Amino acid sequence: MLILFDEVQEWIAHTYVCFAAKHTYVIDTYCGPDSMQEVTELIRELASQQPVVVVNTHFHWDHIWGNCAFPESRIIAHGRCRELMEMHWDKQLKENETFQFGQVIKHLPTEVFQNRWEDPDDHVSLVHTPGHTEDSITFFDHEDGIVFVGDNLEAPLPYIESPDLDAYIATLESYRSLKDVYMISSHAQNTDRDLLLDNLNYLKKLRAGEALYFIDPYAQQIHHTNLAYLKAQACSFH
Ligand SMILES: [Zn+2]
């Protein structure tokens, strides 16, 4: 079940709910407990007493602030995600305060992994897929062929918040090799193969140092932000 949030004018966000054999998985918790209230009500109606397991695809605020709506649940994320959440919690809250829906209480992952996590009974797995950020993970619902990629795919262009472009490209190549799956990303309406190839081509051109210009002002703005980020990162190594 895919839930779309559009309370913030500039962008939409998805929370994916997977009803597996033994658990109900909630992938990303958007901007706070009020947003998650309708999700918990839906789950109660559809899955009755099944325990809920929350997954955070990465540490950014718009994917984690609703964690506190699930105080009894296991929360699974990458090890680095937990560290980055802890490190940036106050800063993220301060900078994005106006997007807080309900009172956000710090609720960190209770369980972390490094490369891969799986629940064979539920036919679900999580894989470390660095790209948009170094802690980004991908959720695989093997039963329904659903792949939730978080912010690793974006329309029109990906936001780069980790300097490792090789890792990002490798992650998108791994998505490209998947057969018969339906991909969902956090903020893009249609995460199809064309979007994947567009994102991949963009990253390859960026890595090659090609000069790029986009007619669409929004795409151009993201590209500028990405260039500025990569430049700042490169400078900090010298
Ligand atoms: Zn993000």
Description of the molecule:
This protein has 238 residues and is an alpha/beta fold. It contains five helices and eleven strands. Strand 10 (146-148), helix 3 (165-176) and strand 11 (182-184) form a beta-alpha-beta unit. Helix 3 (165-176) packs antiparallel against helix 4 (193-207). The longest helix is centred in the C-terminal third of the chain and has 20 residues, at 217-236. The termini are far apart. Zinc ion binds at residues 58, 60, 132, 151.
What secondary-structure arrangement, pairings included, does this model have?
Elements: E1 2-5, E2 13-19, E3 24-27, H1 33-47, E4 52-55, E5 74-78, H2 79-95, E6 111-113, E7 116-119, E8 124-128, E9 137-141, E10 146-148, H3 165-176, E11 182-184, H4 193-207, H5 217-236
Parallel strand pairs: 3-4, 4-5, 5-6, 10-11
Antiparallel strand pairs: 1-2, 2-3, 7-8, 8-9, 9-10
Helix pairs in contact: 3-4
Bound molecules: zinc ion.
Helix-strand topology string: EEEHEEHEEEEEHEHH
Q: How far from one another are the termini?
A: 47 Å
Estimated radius of gyration:
17 Å
Q: What share of the residues lie within helices?
A: 25-40%
Task: Based on Cα principal axes, name the global outline.
Answer: globular
Content of β-strand:
15-25%
